[in-house]
Amino acid sequence: MSNGAGGSSSSSSARVPEGVFGTVHRMWAAEGARALWRGLGSSLWLVSNPVIQFFAYDWLKALRWSSNDISTLEAFFLGALAKALATVLTFPLQVAQSRLRLAPAGDALRPELGGMVACLRAVYKEKGLRGLYFGIFPKLLQSVSQAAFMFAFYEKVHWAIRRLSRQGVRKLAGRAQRLR
């Protein structure tokens, strides 16, 4: 019997909490502890996304013609390009992660449950390259725009910190000379 809030009500059983803890409890009870760790391998591989993003941003920044401070507009576009590259390179891992998390436990007939590599092979075999990149355009729109603003803001904050630091060093040097 449903209580209208997505949970079940029963006077003889303990009340299962809502939210994250309720979800964990229900998964554990229905599918066992392994269900909580599905997709972990692909999640660990996905740490390569920000690594690629920051490497590409620094590399693109170094390729610029000028060695002056980077402008906000340059940071915006270089950050967008770096994130686009990182997203395109790692998107199949996100597809595998989603499939692994949504797959029902105990379905031995599904080869993608053998882990991330098996999942990627199964998607490629079933749908080809298009299957590995299905849904990339909305993801690019979301992540590239977010990264572009983040890098533009990062460069402004970095510039302000460097400026304040230089001013602070000058003040300290002036005070040190007066003390002598």
From TrEMBL:
PROSITE patterns: SOLCAR (PS50920). It is found in: Peroxisome membrane. Solcar repeats lie at residues 1-63, 70-160. InterPro entries: MCP_dom_sf, MCP_transmembrane, Mito/Peroxisomal_Carrier. It is a multi-pass membrane protein. It comes from the Eukaryota. GO terms for cellular component: peroxisomal membrane. It holds the Pfam family Mito_carr. Coiled coil: none annotated. The keyword Repeat applies. Keywords: Membrane, Peroxisome, Repeat, Transmembrane, Transmembrane helix, Transport. Gene3D superfamilies: Mitochondrial carrier domain. One of its GO terms (molecular function) is AMP transmembrane transporter activity. PANTHER family: PEROXISOMAL MEMBRANE PROTEIN PMP34, PEROXISOMAL MEMBRANE PROTEIN PMP34-RELATED. Belongs to the mitochondrial carrier (TC 2.A.29) family. This is ADP,ATP carrier protein. It comes from Polarella glacialis (Dinoflagellate).
